[in-house]
Amino acid sequence: MKRLVVKQDGEQEVTVEVLASSIVAISEGIKKLRAGRLNDKALMLLIQNACPATGTPPSRPAQKEIRAVLDGMAALEATYLKKAPSK
Description:
By secondary structure, the protein is mainly alpha-helical. It has helices at residues 16-35, 40-50, 63-74, 76-80, and strands spanning 5-8, 12-15. A two-stranded antiparallel sheet has the order 1-2.
């Protein structure tokens, strides 16, 4: 079986297992954040106000864009990882 390796910083290698566990951690972290006491509107406003204004004319990301990023981060595990084998 061929072992896949992601190269990082030229010398260091990141194994698929490390990458997969990082994807799971990101997905679970976002899900926990969104299940917390702050509702989505509060999270969107906090993130929006923390982002620097960029572009010409300078503007902050729209709440719709922020929601799409959070949705994407929460879906990383389902999108990129196979289900863990049953024990």
